[in-house]
Every structure is written in C-alpha cells, then in structure tokens.
C-alpha cells in the first residue's frame, strides 16, 4: 500500500503536465476548457503537436511510436492531457485502427498506414455500426464480394463519428454470407474518396453534426486493403472493442466540469441543496478516480481488467450528472440559444442544454451501460 | 373527488388531438415547420382559434370562453404529445393570463379578443439575464415623465418573443413591479430558435414608450405570480403529454426492435425500466391533475403550493422518463429526426422555464411545519359552501 | 373533474373517523400510533369492535356483513382506519379466505365459517408459500391424498404470518401429482389443532417472531373441508391474490409515520438536507395518495385496476423510505435495544432499526416488487 | 500509488480469515455465541491476541506491534465478512486508540499491554442520549475536589460497554472534554444485545471515582476526534467485509436458486441489480483503501477529511448493498438464521455508530470551496520528503 506516486511517476506526471501545456496551443486548450467545439483543424494541430513530442501513441508498439509506459503512466498521461484541456488524439486512429494494424496487419500495410495514422495525416473513420444492428454488432449486413483482385462493397454504416472529416474508413464487412454470424466477417480499409461511397450527415438532438451515415454502392476496394485474413474480422473487432474499454473513465474531464461548475455557480453556492449535490458529485468522482488507479495498477501487461466496465458505467453516469448540474446552474439562461445574435446570458449557460443532451449518448455509445452491466454480471459475477 | 373529464372536455381533447396529430403526427412535419420562421404554423394557430382553444382561459366578456385550467391543460397535453410548436403556453396561457389578471376591462377586451381569435399574438417579457425565476423585475426600469411611461433595460429569454405585442415587466419608480404594453417593433429584439425548437427572444428597451397594463404605477407582483402559476400548471400538462408520448414510443420500440435475434422486450431489465417509467408517469399524472383542480378553485395561495408540488414531481419524472426513453432506444433517439430525443429536449426546456424541481422543493421546505400531514381530501371552506 | 368529496362521501368520511375513534379502545390505537407491537388480544378486540359496528368486512357480500360501498368509500374506510390507528381487520380472515369462501364455498361451508371469520372467532392462517417455491407459488409440493372420506396431508408451508395464533389454516395442496403445475391443486381448510400439524416459529432479523413454518405429517382432514371442487385451487388462489393487491398502498399509515418523524425530529428540522428529505417524501406520498384515489375511482364494480401494481410498488418504497428516515433521525440512539433494562433513549428511537429491518419485507411479501414490475410491463405496457 | 498488500499483510489476512471463518463460517455458530453472554467467544479473543491482532495499532513500547490503519483494516474486514462478534472495533480500535492518543506512557503501557494480550478489555463511554455524534461530552460532568476526580451523568450507547475498564469522557470543570479511567464495576451499568447482535451498555456515573487519562484537566477533544476517525476507518473496513459477503451470498443464491423452472440468474433484471451492487462495492473499496492510506500518514486534518469521504460512500453503498441483498434473496434473507439479513443489520448499525452519510456529507459541504478539484495524487509535503 502506498498513498503517493513513486518519485519516478511523480516526475513523469509533472513532465506530462509541462508538455501538454507547452506543446499544444493555448487557444485549442481554452476551447476545450470552456466546453467549446473543436474544429477539425484544431484536432489535427493538437495531435501533430503530440506526435512531434512523441506522446500521441504511447501505447503502440515501440517501433511505431509507442513508449513502453506502465499502465499507471498511461493513465497519468491521459489524465494530465484532459486536465490541461488537450484534445485526446483521435481515438479512431490511436485507440482503434492503429493497435489493430500493429497487431494484425502485414508489415507492408503497417509501414503504409501507421505513421500517417499516428500523425493524423490520415483521418480514420469507423465503419462498424449498422442501422439494424445496434448493440448486436455481429448481425451486420454490409457485404464485400470478391471481384478479381478487388472487393466490391455494398451496404450502409451509421453512427460514424466525425465521418465528415474522414480520409479512410476501417470497415467490417460480411465476406461469407453462409457462415454463422460472427464468422464470415472481414475488415477492409476503404479510401473515403472512392466512387460509390457517400457520407450523409445525421443531425443530433443538440443541433450538432458529429455522426454520419456512410453508404457504399458498388465501392471497389483493392484486395491489398484487407486487414489480416479473410473472415478474421470478428477477432479484430473484439480486440479493438476490448482496447476501447480501457481507460474509458473520463475522470479528469468530468472533474474539470465540476470545478468549473463551482466557479460558475456564484451565489447559488449558498444553497445547501446545491452544495450537497456538488459535494456528492466530487466524492463520487474521487471514488471513480481511485478505482481507475486501482484498475491500472492491476492491468499491467495483461488483458483489460474486468472492472473496466465499472469505469465506463460509472464514468458516463457522472459525466451525465455533471452536465445536468451545469444545466441546472444555468437555469433560465439555458434557454437562450448559442446561435442568438446577441445575448447577455453567458456562453457556458447557453451551451449547457445542448451539452446535457449530447452527453446522453455517453451511456449508449462504445458499449451501452446495459452491455457493461451484462459484462459485469457474466464475466465478473459469473451470473 | 373525480379525475374524469366530462363530455365537453373529452370532445375538446379529441378536437385538439385530431388537429395536432394530423398536422404533426409525422414528426418530419414538425421538424420542417420549426426549421423555418416563424417556427410554427399560422394556419394551425388559426384553426386552434376557430375551435376555441385560444380563448379557453378568458372570461366571455373579455372575448374568451370562460373555461379554466382543466381545459387549458387538455390543450397543453396534446401540444406536448406531438411537440406542436405553436406558442400556446407563452402567448395564450402566460401572456394572456397576465392580461386577464392585471389589465383593465378595456385592455382585456382589446388584447384578449384578438388573441382568442388568433389575429394577434402577445408575449410576456419578464426574465432578466442571470436572474433565476424571480417574481419581480429589477434590471428593466420604468420611468414616468408626467405624461408618458418609458422602459429601459434587457429582457431575456422571452419565450415566443416575436409576438406583435409585448408585455414587459419593469421596476416601478416608487418600487414594486409593473407590467407594460409595448409594441414589439418599438424594441430592439432578436429572436432565435431554442434547442427544443421553440422561439426565444432577447428584448432591449431603451426609453421605449410603454402603456401601463392595469392601474398605472401599481405593483403587479402578486398578479404576475398568479399568472405564472397558471402557466406552470399548463407547462406540467405539456410535459405530461410529452412523457406519455416518450413512454409510448419506448414500449413500441421495445416490442418491435430486434437485437440478438429477438425483440427487445425479451430483455427483462429493459421491461422493468419501462415499468418504472410508467410508475413515474402515473404518479405525475395524479399530482398534476390534482393541482389543476386546485388551480380551478381560484385560491391563489393553495394554487401556488399545489403547483409547486406538481412541478417538483414533473421535474423529476421528466428527467427520469426523458433520459430513460433515450437510453432504452439507444442511438436512434439521439438523432434530431426522431421524435424521442426531441421530447426529452422539450421536457428539459419546460423544466427550466418557470423554475426547476430544486427551486420548487426549496419553497416546499419552508412550509414543512405548516401542516402535520398533507390531506388532499380536506376541503377548504369555500369548496364546501 | 372535482377536487372535493361529494357531500355524501364527506359525511361518510366523517362518520368513519368518528366510529374508528370511538368503538376501538384508545390503548390499542395508541399502540399503533406509536409504532408499538400489538398483542393477539388487541387484534381480536379491535376486529370484534369493528364487526359490532358493522364495518369489519364492508367488501364482503351484503348477506355476510358487507356494505355495498363504492370503491371510494372503501378507500376512505381504509384510510380513516389507518389514520385513527385502528389495526386493520386480520387480512387472512377478511381479505383472503372470507371473499374466497363467499365466492366458491358451498352454502353449508359459508354458514359454518363466514360469521366467525368476520368476528375473528376463528383466527385464520395462510398456507400457501413453501420453502422451495418463493414467488413461483404453483410449484408447491404439499400433498393431499384421498383416504376414504378424508384427505391425508403431508408437506411443509412457510412464511405463515402470525401462524402462532392460528385456529385454522387455508391451505393449497397438490391433489393430482400428475397434472401440470397449476392444475392438480386444491384448497383445504385445516384445523390447526389436528394431530400431525406443527407450527414452528421463524425468528426474523428484527428479532421478532411474526412468521412460522407449518409442518404437516399425515394430517387427516375431513373431505367436507375441501373448498369448491377438487383441483380448482389455483383459480381460488388467483382470485385471492388478485384481491390482495387492491388497496394495498399503505398511504395513511406512512403519512402518519412521516408526520411523527417531523414531530420527533426536533432540532434536526433545522438541517436543510433533512428538510429536503422530508418535503420530498411528503410530496411523494401525496402523489401516491392521489394515484390511489384515481385508481379507486376507476375500479368500481370490476376487476382490480392494473395500476394497483403501481400502488403496491411505490407504496412499499415509500414505507421503507419512511422507516429509514426515522432510523436516521434516531441516529446513535437507534443502537440502544428496546430490551435494554433502562435507557434514556426514546422508545421510538430504539424501535427504529428493528422497524427499518422488518419493513424490508414489504417489497418481498404479497407479490415482490419484481413481480409488480413484471405485471406492469406485461399487463399494462404489453411488453 | 499502490493498492496491494505486502506479504506480511497478506499473511495477516490469511491468519485472521482462517481463524474467524473456522469459528463463524457456519453462521449458526455465530448465532449461538451472540445469543449467550458475553456475546462473543473469549477463546477467539485470546487467539486473536496470540496472533498479534489485538496489539496491531499500538506502539511496541506500549505493548503493541506498531502496525497501522492498513493492518487494522485487514482484521476489521475479516470480522465484517463473518460478523465475528468479538469487540475488536470498540475495544481495540476505539478505546485502545483513545488510550494511545491521550494516555501517559505509563497509562499506555498499563492499559494497552493487557489489551493486546487479550487479558483485559476496555471500552469508550462517549455518546450521550439524544446527542448526535458530538465530538465533546456535555451531560457527564467531571468534578475535582482537590484530591480526587469524580464523574456524574449517563453515557449511552456504549459499544461493548461490559468491559472491565471504561474510558469515560466528561465535561471538565474549566471547559473542554476530558477522558477518565473508570472501573466498570464502579458504575451502574446494564448491557444488552443490540439488533445486530453486538453488545451495548448504558453507563451511569454518580460521583464515581475516576482517574484522568493523560494530563489532568486538559481538553482531549482533538485527540478523541482523531481516535474516532481511526475507528471510523476501521468501521468502513468492517462494512466493506460485510458488503463483500452480502454480494457473494447474493450471486451464489442467484446462481443456485431455482424459480419458475430456472435458476434466478436467468432473470436479467436481477443480474443487472447484482452488477450495480458490484459497482457500489468496488467504488467503496477504492475510497476506503485510499482513506486508510491517508490515515496511515498520521496527518490528522487530512485523515479527518478522507475518513468523511470514505464514510459518505460507505453509508450509501452499505444501504444499497444491504437492502438489495435482501431484496434479491427474497423472504429467506428476512430470517434471523440466515447470514444475509444479519449482514444488513450490522451494516445498518455501523452506519449509525460514528455518524451516518448525511452527517459526514454536511461536513464536506462546508469545505467545498477549499479546493478547485480533488486530487488524490497530489502529494502533501511530508509524503514527498
């Protein structure tokens, strides 16, 4: 048992704090810190700055830019990044397709794709979900049929986050229609400028446009763009989704939100019910952060700790609670739209309702909270 | 004690429901209307007027139909069910209610007749930036030079503030809060689309000429508060309609949507959450209908308390049902083109329009020792007479 | 829509309030009002007083003492009874076996049993639950085998509430072992002094003894004690359980608990968190009471309103919340046992923890809250 | 930052667990012991002494083993798991902690040595009827006639107050609160069995002779508060052990118990509730272990805050897990002979021993503006040194 970080980890943490606040432009970090919306260029700029500093993809294999850090160090990296208001490196690149390619792709494919992936010279989109599948990913219907050396892809993906900026899309396709559900699925990398590929925006209830449908009509994909072997896609998907759950607790960003709420609350902090609500939320966050620290301490060099599901489940609950707190603090000012030409209501207050609505997705995407409860009850509790 | 509607009320519900469901039953239609100015359908507004819905709360001598909170609630609930964007709550119930409560007989006839006929909209400009659901006005000030009244200051957010006629509340020179009739175009205002699709405005007065509503210089805080209470109870009905629609959509989705080879209602945990939503909804309906009946007695003090009680429950249930309706649907409910997420957005907006649950609970906390136990069956003297 | 009671119902309510406070001894009512424990004699005295006043079994058929009241009047009767601190008539007699006999029994059996049942000259016990059945009542194993004119009963019942006072027990027994679950069940009335019948106490976690096991070893039961027809028992059980759910919301008694909590809170009422908790609970109770009133208004002359499940579910939740409130108000004084020889801690405070623990049963017995959710989702929501 | 036990700590856990599970693993045994006086098993107490568990928190020069809150927590958790009725928390951690914090070196050696050896139990008589978790004493007053100190007044409830030696807190003549050593038999006391099976006493002093613990007449409020904080954190571990056992029993029951022809783990709604119990448990474990490490630094102010944070979470989780463990079991968990309901009873008692969740939350509310955000990784100066 030790309460504190080792001298080494403490130094590491300070180094990260220093790096994040120096290499990433203040303007970008302020946008994050104030809950504003990032442009695609800001995300690119930030990730390239991290890549230059060698801290964009620390969890990748060393030869592709990884750092061999301990799980605790990765956690500290992630938390200090959030604390400094640095946008996370694009998860589709660094947490999803990057590790998959590093693990499953041919050497040639790695050399072609990994460096621009780390540097966000390629902006990846994810082509997994389909309209009729929901949490039942394996029931996907998009097909890829062999035609000479190429694959011809037809079908539709949806919930493709930030797909409007995408250069390439990694896609699960059905390559053997006769095989059982999970079998017969392959992973293809598809250039989003290919003829027959169309990205259609989906407007969300917060008025924003962050997800898309991606339609494939006879899209030709060179055979070399197949990752790994044919019909091995489900293995890669599971690998990818397993990675996705690690370090998912958005602790530092929610702490930042609650700290901001305290600043913004003003005279409302005199209301004991508001004080109780904030004090409870702070305590809940503390318990979550300590749990994240326990999990990383026990995850070294192995499978993701099963308690990762606790982090996802509880993390999104608290994230949503924090957005609800800000909304209630904004009160009637929350009714004023951000798009209002001029307003005396503070921008944070006018942003609070769309943010609250937007974060309802947190408990749905990336493995819904029902899926997390299922994992906990099956995997951990043996039910 | 009777919670059933009489035949006339049932007919009213059917008429309003028929109209609004025809127009907005396809949610895409509602989206289209909300996307363009003025953000609602003037033809529907006219039809509501023709069926008498816009004049319900007003006395016959004022050009209304002499109905009350129960009938207003029926209309509001149907609006909530389909998210009809017509500014019934803001214009008829709230602003109209202020005119009815504060105006002189002449003013009432002048403003409420056209309002009931659908030929003139009015809006109440009361909220001031940064002030939370205050009963009075502070930042907008009224001046009187012996001949004319003028107003200066900013009101925001003003629901449906693009109306022809504004009622602007202002701090009076001698203290207290007055209500003034202001020509909307005489102010500097901008109107935009709120996150739930409704319209809100910012209204700036700068020595803007104004006519006192009711007796000049008289404090209207109490009358304002009563009008707001009646708008609150109508908002509760609007929320109730939205909650009903959210639960219906959710159970329909659970019955029809397949995942892992079976429809979602094979998953007990989801069904149980739907059951909890139903429990919330039924409890809410009870207390809202009760508070409406209390409001119908016209007793302002009892109404204020009853409305706070309903609002506490509506706030909690609206969050519960709104959040879980999205969760049980999954991603599709996050999209703007699907009804359910929009119901949640509207529930959220209603919750912050006239005071959220904590605001009203704080009021109830102060009266905790005024009673031993609550007895909704205890008749007040005037009920028995 | 009408906010108030009709003049007739108002008069009825006043009459009930008057009756309850005059015919039932003060000492008994005080015991209830202070949350104390009733003796069997108090329960008998109270019910006989109600029977004398003609208000013990108002929902029975008129010829057996019923009153043809409206559902609203029955509700008012029940609420005023609770408000006055009058113990409810023994539910095994008046809500369970009485209506079953009135509906299904032969005229002879009615004449023999209904009058002493209404007057609590017979104290009935319920013999339904079995150790291995839980909520799955129909999986019962206690058998009755025909032997001449008699039935010979073997098996075990459990959770027999107040069985230590029982004179007779109405029992579900399996009379056809080959029939499917729900079929092959019959209802027998068994004299609890019969040889081979043994009542064994079960101690509960609150230290009290209110439930029992009842063991049957070759207990001979005269054939005339069969209710209705052989193998018709499940029909009667469903009828009985359906009745049990009506009017189950313990509104008035919980309101009384919360009103007492306010009195007892003393200086703790200055704590805004305590005030918020009580104000919320009062509001929740108001919503429940109004829902009960809505349900009774719509139940006249028909099946139990499906929303009865809402009353049971929410009623027990609030009942439990009220006991938890009293426990927390008692604070450290709740640790002092009621059995302490002498104590300066108030009796209510010393009773608060056992009461809290005892009421955990409320969401389990009489159709658990999971069963209620199942009913709501299936019957009402069509899921 | 490291949440793992070292080899010695693991060995301690195994030893204590082995002893207590052998003795009380069959819950019927625990019931039997608790039903009779003294309410625990003196042989087990002796064995705990022999394995060093009773001397863990005390300095070696006082007759202890110089371990700390982490080791005490290990013992407490094992006690909680099987509801071992030995008065470890009350006698060793609480009363022993007060001696260690307040007593003179001679007193420490005199009292703590026999305590660690299991030959003498002590108890702290601090609570006074009707006062809620006060830091000071008010109703019991100390007098000094120039030669001897005497105490008068009533203490209740006194956990495990049947001990040979009592430490009684009392209001000092000059103000402040003192601690006094009193021969238990010199008081009028009655001991009874609390609802969770533990023993509590009422202790009446009436000009009862008393020896000041530590310097006579000196206010010991701060030292008392520190000792109580250490007892609180041990109580958190005891609760954690009980919660673990409750969840284990519940999942075991769901896996094995059949209803409607299948085991209960075929019902998704029940499994999901078990998953939520697990989430509560893991969050609680994290914050309790962290608070324990903070306590181990010896920094009283940081410990006080960390303990309050752990206590808020333990209170909530204890209710959640205790209530749902009963609910998911159904009727069987209501019976006294079954472990689960007794775990809930003990969790309930622990929650009200040193301050419930609301009590501690109120403390945290007061410090809300002392920090921007909580940072458990921020090292205090002395940690780094």
UniProtKB/TrEMBL annotation, chains A, C:
Residues 231-380 form the Acyl-CoA dehydrogenase/oxidase C-terminal domain. Its cofactor is FAD. InterPro entries: Acyl-CoA_Oxase/DH_mid-dom (IPR006091), Acyl-CoA_Oxase/DH_mid-dom_sf (IPR046373), AcylCo_DH-like_C (IPR036250), AcylCo_DH/oxidase_C (IPR009075), AcylCoA_DH/ox_N (IPR013786), AcylCoA_DH/ox_N_sf (IPR037069), AcylCoA_DH/oxidase_NM_dom_sf (IPR009100), Mycobact_Acyl-CoA_DH (IPR052161). Keywords: FAD, Flavoprotein, Oxidoreductase. Pfam families: Acyl-CoA_dh_1 (PF00441), Acyl-CoA_dh_M (PF02770), Acyl-CoA_dh_N (PF02771). Residues 127-218 form the Acyl-CoA oxidase/dehydrogenase middle domain. The keyword Chaperone does not apply. It comes from the Bacteria. Belongs to the acyl-CoA dehydrogenase family. This is Acyl-CoA dehydrogenase family protein.
TrEMBL record, chains B, D:
The keyword Flavoprotein applies. It holds the Pfam family Acyl-CoA_dh_1. Residues 7-118 form the Acyl-CoA dehydrogenase/oxidase N-terminal domain. The keyword Flavoprotein applies. Keywords: FAD, Flavoprotein, Oxidoreductase. Its cofactor is FAD. It comes from the Bacteria. PANTHER family: ACYL-COA DEHYDROGENASE, ACYL-COA DEHYDROGENASE FADE28. This is Acyl-CoA dehydrogenase family protein. It comes from Nocardioides malaquae.
